Amino acid sequence: MKEDTCCFSGHRQISIYDTMLLTLKLKKEIKKLIKEGYKNFICGGALGFDTIAALTVINAKEKYSDIKLILALPCENQTQKWQQKDKEVYEKIKLKSDKIIYTSKNYYRGCMFKRNRFMVDHSACCIYYLTKDTGGTAYTVNYAKEKGLILINMA
Question: pTM of the full predicted structure?
Fold first, then answer.
């Protein structure tokens, strides 16, 4: 599975303008990867880039029915402090995903990093949106570099 799997990582705060551009760029990149043989796409279920990536994969599934959206979620109560509209989008994504994996039952300091390592450890490629050298995305991209993944920055 690892050879035909791509994961996503990116910032949570993204402007509406950048969201539109990212969606177009992701659509093109995902299509390219599908043509190269990628079938599994792992998303972390966070706000921002993860949501954009998951929705883009869901849309791609309409044309490429053999691809799979796998959600690797850090804990069962990830959305506890989210706004209602974000929770609704999250639930729709969960319904349209092919598989959901919780890397921890409950939230704890470090569960997001555990989720990120899981995604990288089960992928050959990582598409990411990184505009600064600190935070969870930077950590994940550095970990993916160490593991030898193909890296594609959408920024």
Answer: 0.96
